[in-house]
Structure formats: C-alpha cells, structure tokens
Write a structure and sequence with these properties.
Elements lengths: L1 E12 L3 E18 L7 E4 L3 H4 L5 H12 L8 E6 L9 H17 L5 H12 L3 H8 L2 E3 L8 E4 L9 E7 L5 H6 L7 H20 L2 H7 L6 H4 L6 H10 L4 E4 L6 E5 L4 H15 L3 E7 L6 E4 L2
Parallel strand pairs: 3-4
Antiparallel strand pairs: 1-2, 1-11, 2-4, 2-5, 5-6, 7-9, 7-10, 8-9
Length: about 300
Amino acid sequence: MRFTVRAPASSANLGPGFDALGLALDLWNEVVVDTDGPPDSVTWDGPESALLADRENLSLKAMRLLAAEHGRTLPPFALTARTGVPVARGLGSSAAALVAGLLAADRLLDLNLSQTDLYAHAWRMEGHGDNVGAALHGGAILAVPGVPAAVQLVPPNDTTLGLLAVLFIPEVTGATWAARAALPALVPHPDAAFNLATACGLALGLRTNSHPLIAAGMRDRLHEPYRARLFPHLEPLENAARAAGALGACLSGAGPSVLALVDPAQASTVAAALADAAHHLGVVGEPVTLTLACQGAHIVEEP
C-alpha cells in the first residue's frame, strides 16, 4: 500500500483572533507512506528539508500518538516527508505535518475517525485549534474552547471570498516560544475590548464575505504590539500593504511572516509594496501570493 497525505499551510490569528482564527493557504506539506518500503525509514524532501533533518518528524510522532491512544500498533512502513511550507515562519508547517500524520495513521489503521475526532486529537496534540483546524478543514475556521468541531467561517470548497493572500516571508526564522514569551501577563482593559470587537467583526466578515468588516477587523492590540519588538518590520510592512490597497494586514501566526488579504486586482501592487518596504528595512525575504486553500488535508491514493 502506498498513499500520500497533503495538508495545507495556515495563517493563525489574522490580527485580533489570537489562538482562535485560522486560514488555510494553498501551499502544502506532504507525507508519503509506503508499506512496501524499507521499514522504519524516514526521508526528508523539499526546500525546507535542511532545517528539519535533525528534528523529530512531527508526522511520525502524531501517527504513533494516535495509534497508542487507540491501543493499536502501526504496521511497518517507510515515510517520506515533503516540506513545501516554510518552517518557523508563522505559516503552520508543524500543524500541517501533525494533521498529515493523523490522517496517515487513520488510513493505515482503518480507524475511520470523523473530522471532529481528528480535530480533537489535533487540538490536544498541538495545544490550540487555530492552525490545525485550518489545515484539517481548509477555508477559514474559528476554534472555540469547549466546542468539539471547528466553526467553519469559509467552508471547504467555497470560493466566494474572492481574496488572495499576499505574504512577505523573511529568510530569517522565528520561534513560537519566543513570540509567546514576548506577551505580557496582563493587557489593558481597553485593548481587550478593542480586540473583542475587531475579532467578532473579522469572523463575521469572513463568514458573510463583507470586505469592509474584514478590513476593519484585521487590527490587533493583544499580541502584535508586543511581538513587534521581536519583528521591527511588522508595522512598516502592514502600513505599506494597506497603503497599496490591501484590505488588511497582520503578523502571520507567531511570525515573522506578514500576511495581507487583498482583492486580486491589487495583489501585484501589494506584493511590490511589501518587497520595497522590506528592502528599505534591510529585511531579506520574498513576497509570495497565494490563493486560499478551499480543501483541507486529504489522502491521495497511489497505484
């Protein structure tokens, strides 16, 4: 048996939706499982493989955890991990790897778990549901503690939002633990109230395809002002994107990538503005324009 699991990149938070909002992007990690290959062999492939060669394979870890939780043993197999999602750039590479591993183990063990069950496993393993929910389901999701299923704001295979994601992806990597360590234990009440309003507006804007609500909603006071100390390029790039016509711009996940949501007609202008602003700041990287991933993680059977 040989099959491939594909799982998309994702951008979490989208500004005010800290640990709650996730958006799937058309950039993919793949896990190839071959039960006829060399048993227990793990091969890294793809442009990011050099960054991962000495790390634990998260897909394999997720596979083993899922098997253990169900009292099962994985059969012998060879695994190839193709990393298309930039690592440690705030684009959910680890979430994509984890979700791909869960789908692979579910297929190998014939568990036939539901999307809700897989999401619960993924949330528990990852620690929060935003990136894994987007990677699993596609579209845009809202992760609500105590709700077993991700709330799908832009459902899978729904292309009505009509926006593109323009990102500036720095060459330098970031660390989620460092980005979280930059956050204060307490935030001012007015900032919390501001984020409550903008997060609700953004979620409703995504659900109803309201561009004015999306534009007003992609503003944050809860985490970005503190993480901007780690990433001085954040505010200048956000301002450049908005000035060039983006609906909104934000730190992608824990950074350092910056994401802008744009009408397709403005995509090239926004990409150029991000590249120009980064150049003036001396930040090495590249602008990338992506469609939103309308399909989440899925299995591709091979002959």
